[in-house]
Each structure stands twice: as structure tokens, then as C-alpha cells.
TrEMBL record:
Protein name, entry field: Inositol oxygenase
SUPFAM superfamilies referenced in this protein's UniProt entry, alphabetically: HD-domain/PDEase-like
Gene3D superfamilies from the UniProt entry: Hypothetical protein af1432
UniProt KW keywords: Ascorbate biosynthesis, Cytoplasm, Iron, Metal-binding, Oxidoreductase
Residues engaged in binding substrate: 45, 102-104, 144, 161-162, 239-240
Amino acid sequence: MTILIDQPEFGVEAGFDKVDNVEKGMVLDGGFMVPQTNSFGHTFRDYHVESERQQGVENFYRTNHINQTYDFVKRMREEYGKLNKVGMSIWECCELLNDVVDESDPDLDEPQIEHLLQTAEAIRKDYPDEDWLHLAGLVHDLGKVLLHPSFGGLPQWAVVGDTYPVGCAFDKTIVHHKYFEENPDFYNSAYNTKYGVYSDGCGLNNVMMSWGHDDYMYLVAKENNTTLPPAALFIIRYHSFYALHRSEAYKHLMSEEDVENLKWLQIFNKYDLYSKSKVRIDVEKVKPYYLSLIEKYFPAKLRW
């Protein structure tokens, strides 16, 4: 069976129900095989199944939801938007992730460099002519270097996990929503309505998202004048925004441009999620290809 996702409809992840009930041998548009289960033998993104990582993941989201306030995000964007921490290349940043494991991820406990290459290579098989999309797969999680001491060693709750808008009501589709009741913004009348500080169709570019690796890598790419297309920057910035691209929440804040870019994000998300596995990529074999893409779309050294 093949899932056709070349032209997904807005607001519906093409083939989503089919992927949720994935059949053995199912593929995405060609070469990439969708696995039946994650690395622990469970359904992907199941935050309630009892597993060796379930309790740790839930504890992570409790801390995340309590601390991600509008004021906190504003401070983080101002501080890290200065891009004065480190000067290094994209590939050097990839190598820094060798020691990083995402505590919010119920599907994988491999170092992040493995996930980056798995995502990029899966996309490359099915979209061989979209090299910008391959590179988006490689760099989308690089913001997780915020966990590294060179970047201040931020706690996991301020770096990884699903993202969501702050400054308006927390949608009930957000994973472990109940813990928002311990967030002070939950009771703030300026922030706890459908629109909060925003307006209908204002555009996601004008919405503050919970702070983490997505928004940080977007700032790094944009301020270092990457030549990646807008769809790639949208993918980098919102790939963890599952409440939108999986549950259709917050679409009242989207602009027409957001609607178009979301189509590419919905394509990308399949590979980001379902490429996670214990199968290792031969780094040295694929490295020359990705170095050529980095040279094409990024400066030799970036400000981080």
C-alpha cells in the first residue's frame, strides 16, 4: 500500500488514519518503509502506554507546561536571539548532538545525530529532486544544542517536546494538557482566551511559540541569511507544533502563506516521526552529499 502525500489537503495529515493503524510493509511515496512500531515496540507518539520511558516523558511535560509562560518565552527569544554563544558550521553542530538524547520522545532513545540522518535519508529516497527538503531533515533538530554547556545548558523542558502558542489559551489537544493548570498564564485573562494577544488570521509569524529548539534553529537560520526557501524555515520552526499539524488546533491564527507552507510540513512530519529506528546510517557515506547541501544553502560558519 502507498500513502499519497504529494498534495495533502489543508488541516488533514494525508493518510493520517492509515498511518495510525499502520500495516506491515506500508510505504510513503516510494522507498521509505513505515515501521509498525517504535523502538520500544509500541505505537508511535503513545504518551500513555506503560513503557520504560513513559513516566519520564510525562514528568518532562509537567515541568514544561508549568514553566512555559508568555514572559518566559519573551525573555528566551531576546537572550538567544542575540546569537552570541558560539561560532561554528552546520556539520559541527550536527556532531555536537552525538551526546544528546531527547527526554520528551517516547519513540526513540538514540542520539539525535542518528535521528537527523534517518529523517533526511528517508526524505531523500522519496523526494530525490527536493534537495532543500533533504537539508531541512538534517537541520530541523539542530536547535537541541541548547542542551549543550556551550549554549548555557538549558534544561530539557526549555529545549525539546511538542510546541504550542503562548499568549492565548492552551488547546486541549496538547499532550498532557492537564498540567497547564499549574501554569500562571492559565488564569491570566489576557492570555487564556481563544485569541489572547493575537487576532484572527494574524499569521504564525506573529505568534510566540513555547521556547525550544524549533524557534531557536529558525532564528539561527534566518539571521545567518540561509537561502533555504520559506517552506523549509516553516518546517524548522513548526515541526513540533503537533496541535496544529496533527489536530488542526490554532488554525484560526494562520495566514494564507501559513496554509501553503503547512502542506510541506505535513509531508515532512511523516518522515520526521516514522523514520525513527535502531537502523544506523553510514555517516561517512552520506556526509559528502550533506556537506554539499550545507555549502549551497548556508554560510561556512554561523553565529549561534
